[in-house]
Amino acid sequence: MSRTTIDIWVGLFVAIGLASLLFLALKVGNLASTSSGETYTLQARFDNIGGLKVRAPVKSAGVVVGRVSGIRFDPANYVALVTMQIEASYKFPVDTFATINTSGLLGEQYIGFEVGGDENMLKSDDMIKKTQSAVVLEKLISQFMFNKAAEDGPKK
Question: How buried is residue 44: exposed, middle or buried, by Cβ count under 10 Å (0-12/13-18/19+)?
Answer without folding.
Answer: buried
